[in-house]
Specification:
This protein is an all-alpha fold. Helices cover about 70% and strands about 0% of the residues.
């Protein structure tokens, strides 16, 4: 996947994700039960947290430093910790982070070359996987993972 294709895919899936949020009231955004006990606000904080981690990784790449990455076995723990830290944050702050982190992510991705994203040997800490796989998991695949829960919850209404 080229950088252009990756960015277009991110843009398309992000737009679909945000379309699922369109017209929600603050009360709807903070009501629990969208995904387990999580609210829409909690899901937005969750998405922003993973994008923020990705921004940090991309910043490390820019500086030529191997970033700290997670083992897949740590994901559930990180999700639980993030939820506990963010669940009392005001909706307006979560929304602000959701949008600001995404803008920063796009800026960092734009600084990369196609090779940075697609060459599975470019970053040894990726253990043979191309960087685009990590980017996809924390962006468009993540939106596509959580959008159906929001849409299903809204249909129950």
């Amino acid at each position: 996947m080229t950088k252009r294709e990756l960015l277009l895919t991110i843009q398309r899936e992000r737009a679909a994700f945000e379309a699922a949020l369109a017209g929600l009231t603050p009360e709807q955004m903070t009501a629990p039960g969208v995904m387990g006990e999580w609210s829409v606000k909690d899901l937005l904080g969750h998405v922003a947290m993973w994008e923020s981690r990705l921004v940090t990784i991309l910043y490390s790449i820019e500086r030529g430093v191997a970033p700290k990455t997670l083992r897949s076995s740590d994901v559930d723990r990180v999700n639980a910790e993030s939820y506990a830290e963010q669940r009392e944050r005001p909706l307006d702050r979560v929304l602000s982070d959701f949008h600001a982190v995404h803008a920063q992510l796009l800026k960092r991705l734009d600084a990369l070359e196609d090779r940075d994203l697609s060459d599975s040997k470019r970053f040894p800490w990726m253990e043979g996987e191309p960087l685009e796989k990590l980017v996809a998991g924390d962006t468009f695949e993540h939106y596509a993972e959580h959008r159906p829960a929001i849409e299903a919850w809204l249909k129950k209404g």
